[in-house]
Amino acid sequence: MQHQSKKIQRENKMNSRKLNDRKNNLCNHCGYEKNPVEAKLCQRCGKPLNIVPLIDKKETTTSKSTSVQDLLLTPWIVRSTFGLLFLFLSWLIFSLFITINKLNNSGNPEINASNESFSNITLSNSIRDVLNIPEGTFNYGGGNTFAALVAQGLHEAIAASHPNFKLRYTESKDGKSGGTKGVAMVLDGQLSFTLNGASLEDTDYKKAQERGFQLKQVPVALDALVFFTHSDITIPGLSIKQLQDIYKGKVINWKEVGGPNLPIILFARDPKAANILTLLLGEEVDQLSDKTRFVRDYTDAIRKVSVTPGSISFGASALIRNQQTIRPLAIAKGNSQEYVQPYVEDREKVNTVAIRNGSYPINRRMFIVFRLDGTIDQLAGEAYSKILLSKEGQQFVEKAGLVSIR
Description:
Oligomer: single chain
CATH topology: D-Maltodextrin-Binding Protein, domain 2
Number of strands: 15
Distance between the termini: 110 Å
Strand content: 15-25%
Order of helices and strands: HEEHHHEHHEHEHEEHEHEHEHEEEEHEHH
Shape: elongated
Radius of gyration: 45 Å
Structural class: alpha/beta
CATH architecture: 3-Layer(aba) Sandwich
Number of helices: 15
Number of domains: 1
């Protein structure tokens, strides 16, 4: 009983608090809202009032508003919001990068696609197996070493396997040939591709970019520069330093390098047409002796050296091999006397081992150079490169007196 009595007292207190918290009483009969809390009868209809408190709408709204605000500020909501914001910004930056990249490459999409596909080529075994050979007549020129390849039957083999891929050697208007001239003719659109005995210069790439395309160089062989003299010069060899001094005009008589008392007569290719002097003198090519006599090509150089006592010249190993009217020189690195012969087996074969391991002082890579412009000339340059890089093509490279790279 005492327990129930205490329970009733507590309930009465709670009801009392609730009544004190009321603002107005609502009449269930007529709906009148402004009856005082202490009223027993409705002031409008006079009927008894049921005690139903009417809470202030503003307080209710404020309470709800506060609850929503508290909900939005919970830690998991805050973390989720920042996470979504980070993802959105990351997507935005990525999309911007992709857009800029596409705009930069939009000038010629064929170039990019072809360049990518060519970098992943599959090397063939035979010339016949080479795919994507274009049809038509294509001009090639530049490096004189083409002559050695053609002489060994390379182009005949190409014609037998791909009869519609026709090749035509084309000289420049001034009659000069060489890698430098060939690259210039490729840039001008006169050649589909050229053979070059040196890497492209930055100026070459810049000229191509200014004209709206790119250049591609593909290594296809190794070569050595062979120095040769008139047959009356009987010395064991020369060092690179001595050769540089000779072509700079610092050494003018053979007796200064252990030879006979004869003036040294210099023959060389014109550096405006061929880059071979740069391989010897480098950036000092402008110090070339003014007594140097320029020759049209290596055939002209061999002929003039063979009939001019005390003369010297140099050229590609493929074109000097087996020449009996001149005397090839052994050369040594730096200023040493560790001479290395360019040929073995009585001049019948190039010194492949010395060229491959770099012990022969001046060797170089041979490149096929062509434009990346999305035209059929680009396809021709790619096709010729793949032909030379096939196993059969590399056999022709060796037959021509060059060193294969496969």
